[in-house]
Amino acid sequence: MKNIAKFSAIGAALAVVAGLGFTWFASTRHAGEDIFAQCRSSVVAGGAGAIGGPFTLTDENGKTVTDKDVITEPSLLYFGYTYCPDVCPLDNARNAEAVTLLEDHGYSITPVFISIDPARDTPELLRQFTDLMHPKMIGLTGTPEQVKKVSQEYRTYFKVQDPNDPYTLIDHSTQSYLVFPKIGFVEYFNRDAKPEDMADRIGCFIDAWNEAGADSAS
Question: Where are the disulfide bridges (predicted)?
Fold first, then answer.
């Protein structure tokens, strides 16, 4: 059964990557209008209109927030859950390290952790998790419907292995998403991305954003 679940998760992850690749292909038709063209690689998904969108969730302090409340500067979004035994802590620690490297070079970026486990991830648990990762990290949860909607907006995948098991694991995609105020999604990073490489690439996006007047592409 574990092998079946594993292959199912791998297949779903490949589907996510395939979808992102298609988005990149479509967006390159307008590369001449892309202020971030020099920052993208050949496998990067562009096209803010195809990935991401508005959301309403609950933050780690129990307050209802929207995407406009959360994404007030360049932000790095990750979808996971606090009970995750290894992947989520490692990925978020990597993201936090990239954010710290950027801060050392004068860039400001907010790491965001969106829970796909609303049944167990209370705002209090999210706050404990994010406080361990980075002082700026924001934790978000919501109703099952709200979480499903934002997951669909970002084309992410997750599946609870056993809804009746209080200790169940959740299969999920592991991309991290770079988003900007008004512009929205601009880039994604896979699990194998190193914090130093992420910092360099994110810095390129922020520089291009600033040179274009920060919100000229809204």
Answer: 84-88
